[in-house]
Amino acid sequence: MTHSEACQLFIEQEIKEGLAQGKTPYSIGKELTAMVEKMFEVTIPADTLRKRAGRIGTNVHTPATPLTPSEIPEKPVNQQVRNEAGAFVEGTAPGPGRPPKYQYPQEPWSCAMSMAGLAIGHLGRIPDDDPKRHEAFQKVIAWINDHS
After folding, report:
1. Is 142 domain-assigned?
2. Burial of 132 by CB count in 10 Å (0-12 exposed, 13-18 middle, 19+ buried)?
3. Within a domain: residue 93?
4. Total number of domains constituting the chain
């Protein structure tokens, strides 16, 4: 073990022992500075040792007190109820976590209106002076009659 490792080990042991005795990090740092200087012939600022004692003191593990079964709070059980469409019924919680961002649609989804809007938008782009404009509209009307 090197000289510096021995010094570090000594400091750590003295800090733990001082904390166990109830000493403050300030007093531990002040005492350790003098001890380390005598034993290892090294000057370490008291503030450095005080900070280290404070860090070690905050990492001390305190065991949790066990609860008796009567003291353990019971978790409420959430009922998950879904309707025919598969969506959760209003007022029932789906479980832990954040609520879903989107709700399931109640009616079947249809793209008919968006497609009709696209078709009208494209037909509206035909210039008024196009010689085939009237023929194109007649073709669309015939398609509508065949498919309705």
Report:
1. yes
2. exposed
3. no
4. 2
Which residues constitute the domain of residue 139? 113-147
| Backbone CA torsion sign across 112, 118, 121, 123 | negative
Give pLDDT tens digits for 53-74.
888 766 655 555 655 666 666 6
Does 104 fall in a domain?
Answer: no
Sign of torsion over alpha carbons 47, 53, 57, 60: positive
How far, in Å, CA of 53 to CA of 14, rounded?
9
* Residue 71 forms part of a structural domain: no
Choosing from 40, 58, 76, the residue where a domain stops is: 58
- What is this structure's pTM? 0.38
Quick check: 10 pLDDT over 80?
Answer: yes
How far apart CA 29 and CA 26 sit, in angstroms, is: 5
Q: Look at residues 7, 1, 58, 67 and name the one whose alpha carbon lies nearest to residue 32.
A: 7
The last residue of one of the domains, among 22, 42, 58, is 58
Tell the burial category of 30 from Cβ atoms under 10 Å away from its Cβ (0-12, 13-18, 19+): middle
- The answer to whether 105 and 85 are in contact (CB under 8 A) is yes
